[in-house]
Amino acid sequence: EVTVSSPTSFVATAAIPTSSIKLPSGDGYGFKVLTTELEVATDGSSYEYGILADIELVLGGSRLPLSLVGQFVPSDATVAIEMSNNNVGLTNAMGIPGFDITSLTAKNTYVGGVPKGVGFAVSGKIPNFLKELGVNPNTPFTAAIEFGVGVTVGMGLGSRNGGSPDIVSIQNVLSAKYMQASFSTVGATIAGVEYRKGLHLVFDGMFGKTPVFVDGSIAPSERIIEFEIGSFDLAGFKFDESKGKLVWTAQDVELGFSG
């Protein structure tokens, strides 16, 4: 499959859905590649190569399904490799009631063939004791950290997918179904989640019965705030859904609005 977005920009993908590669293994131990997908992306003179694969690791007779994501950027000789187990199934982790872990990801980054960065991510459900703070104990979370290639720390609560429970609900006035906070010195992607450079905050919820979405980031070179507000009535006037974006740099200020 090839997707062309401009004369100098395209993405080519090749899937090998029935691949099965078995490496030599001992009794009760093995390594098997089940499916593979290769990707090449170019934008002008820059290229990126990627690989996605489903792997089965056998340890002591136990089968451990893993997902592998790899990326190679020739322009800066960077290779990033992630290994994820998306079916951990650990309940009441560390003996904490309600603290469930569903997935774990480990990331290694190499620059010029030399190990440069290490990252980790964990997803699951928050513990029950946070209910005392008004937080829904069924709230899913994702936390990530990376160091070596700059520093990245991030955490997200809830989900932007439909049907997820509210994280908090305050007297039917303010509720949130997704919140994210992160800080990154260079920007990073860990376990499929993008963490922008600088301080980044996201809120997706309701003010009364009006949907509200705010996405803001503060970096040394620029500040960006994007927002979406659903339709609402005020003083006899009806306002339809509106969107806006504010970009503030040292040189100028840009404001866009529609609604």
Word description of this protein:
This protein has 259 residues and is an all-beta fold. Helices cover 0% and strands 66% of the residues. It has no helices and 22 strands. The protein has strands at 2-6, 9-16, 21-22, 30-43, 46-59, 62-73, 78-85, 100-111, 114-125, 140-148, 150-158, 168-170, 174-184, 188-190, 193-195, 198-207, 210-218, 222-229, 232-234, 237-239, 242-249, 253-258. It has an 18-stranded antiparallel beta sheet that branches. Strands 14-15 form a two-stranded antiparallel sheet. A two-stranded antiparallel sheet has the order 19-20. β17 and β18 form a beta hairpin. The chain is globular, with a radius of gyration of 22 Å. The two termini are 37 Å apart.
List unreliable stretches of 5+ residues: none
- How many runs of DSSP E, i.e. beta strands? 22
Please tell me the overall pLDDT.
Answer: 83
Helix content: under 10%
- Helix and strand content put the structural class at mainly beta
Spell out the helices and strands N to C: EEEEEEEEEEEEEEEEEEEEEE
Cα gyration radius (Å)? 22 Å
Percent of residues in β-strands: over 45%
Number of helices: 0
Largest sheet: 18 strands, antiparallel
Shape: globular
Distance N terminus to C terminus? Answer: 37 Å
